[in-house]
Amino acid sequence: MKTLFSGIQPSGVPTIANYIGAIKQFQTMQYDYESYFCIVDQHAITVPQDRLKLRERTRQLAAIYLASGIDTTHSTLFIQSEVPAHAQAGWLMQCISYIGELERMTQFKDKSSKQQDGISAALLTYPPLMAADILLYGTDIVPVGDDQKQHLELTRNLAERFNSKYNDILTIPEVKLPEYGARIKSLQEPTKKMSKSDSNQKSFVSLLDPPKQIEKKIKSAVTDSEGIIRYDKENKPGVSNLLDIVSVLKDATVESIEKDFEGVQYGEFKSFVAEVVVDELTPFQERYEHYMNSEELDHILDKGRDQANMKAQKMLTKMENAMGLGRKR
Ligand code: AQP
């Protein structure tokens, strides 16, 4: 059976963009693969985090994965920092990465330009750690949103470099983007991507927002003055973004939604979008509450840590042997 790996940072509560771009696909895909779902808390600390909030979000993210349908009788759910092989293999990957290629990463450029109190070295070395996360499991497929495509390309390059320099032991992973909704945009600035760590709360709908707040945020989404519900990413990014969200959540084509809303005012359309999002998130939030309030969550994470440790340690040993580290094992 082929292997699937996916990671999400507990850098905020996941948004509907993380859901549409990544999480929504996991439930059905997991059974076709040996699946690993990881809460990548070591990635989150590449920018400053409040330690108590980070703990809380890590737990929330575990419950979110479970509420989205991750079945831990089949798949492994675990926290990155509880599996030491990630940081260890991350170092090996750093040793074969070039500063120039890391500096070219769009996310590094974006995030470093926003840091006021100094840029951590880890913001630059984030992609080699991400490569380690993926490569440790012999991963064949990584389902992600469009923003992670560049990091995935680098992961492939690093794996090929390692294989040709040392020993042919790493699997070259494929990226799997969703057919629609790979880049959901900010509700306030629809030319940039929606992000869970955006300081403007109105720019995103979080998966845990109550219905009233969801409605308020969607109703204040930036659109345009044309007044026609029409898909045109270039000239009407706000309306197109709302169409993308509805199309994925309702599993309907954009054309059919355009047709249904011909001659309808933006206000009415936005109420519909809010209703669709609330309908999707209400049962999701009930499942989330169940997991957050149960002891089961910790047992699942303990089991996931042990399973991930076993798999990752084996690959780490192979990588260290290939590079000549320590004594031969
Ligand atoms: N705007 C987006 N549209 C579709 N998919 C998206 N993803 C992120 N933003 C969008 C996908 O969500 C998964 C988890 O993302 P992550 O936690 O690894 O971090 P990220 O890609 O940096 O996402 P955020 O929300 O922007 O987080 P912050 O604000 O912390 O940087 C990934 O599969 C990602 O592609």
UniProtKB/TrEMBL annotation:
<dbReference type="InterPro" id="IPR024109">
    <property type="entry name" value="Trp-tRNA-ligase_bac-type"/>
</dbReference>
<feature type="binding site">
    <location>
        <position position="133"/>
    </location>
    <ligand>
        <name>L-tryptophan</name>
    </ligand>
</feature>
<feature type="binding site">
    <location>
        <begin position="9"/>
        <end position="11"/>
    </location>
    <ligand>
        <name>ATP</name>
    </ligand>
</feature>
<keyword id="KW-0547">Nucleotide-binding</keyword>
<comment type="subunit">
    <text>Homodimer.</text>
</comment>
<feature type="binding site">
    <location>
        <position position="184"/>
    </location>
    <ligand>
        <name>ATP</name>
    </ligand>
</feature>
<dbReference type="Pfam" id="PF00579">
    <property type="entry name" value="tRNA-synt_1b"/>
</dbReference>
<keyword id="KW-0963">Cytoplasm</keyword>
<dbReference type="InterPro" id="IPR002306">
    <property type="entry name" value="Trp-tRNA-ligase"/>
</dbReference>
<dbReference type="GO" id="GO:0005829">
    <property type="term" value="C:cytosol"/>
</dbReference>
<dbReference type="GO" id="GO:0005524">
    <property type="term" value="F:ATP binding"/>
</dbReference>
<dbReference type="InterPro" id="IPR014729">
    <property type="entry name" value="Rossmann-like_a/b/a_fold"/>
</dbReference>
<dbReference type="GO" id="GO:0006436">
    <property type="term" value="P:tryptophanyl-tRNA aminoacylation"/>
</dbReference>
<comment type="function">
    <text>Catalyzes the attachment of tryptophan to tRNA(Trp).</text>
</comment>
<protein>
    <recommendedName>
        <fullName>Tryptophan--tRNA ligase</fullName>
        <ecNumber>6.1.1.2</ecNumber>
    </recommendedName>
</protein>
<comment type="similarity">
    <text>Belongs to the class-I aminoacyl-tRNA synthetase family.</text>
</comment>
<feature type="short sequence motif" description="'KMSKS' region">
    <location>
        <begin position="193"/>
        <end position="197"/>
    </location>
</feature>
<keyword id="KW-0648">Protein biosynthesis</keyword>
<keyword id="KW-0436">Ligase</keyword>
<dbReference type="GO" id="GO:0004830">
    <property type="term" value="F:tryptophan-tRNA ligase activity"/>
</dbReference>
<feature type="binding site">
    <location>
        <begin position="193"/>
        <end position="197"/>
    </location>
    <ligand>
        <name>ATP</name>
    </ligand>
</feature>
<keyword id="KW-0067">ATP-binding</keyword>
<dbReference type="InterPro" id="IPR002305">
    <property type="entry name" value="aa-tRNA-synth_Ic"/>
</dbReference>
<feature type="binding site">
    <location>
        <begin position="145"/>
        <end position="147"/>
    </location>
    <ligand>
        <name>ATP</name>
    </ligand>
</feature>
<keyword id="KW-0030">Aminoacyl-tRNA synthetase</keyword>
<dbReference type="InterPro" id="IPR050203">
    <property type="entry name" value="Trp-tRNA_synthetase"/>
</dbReference>
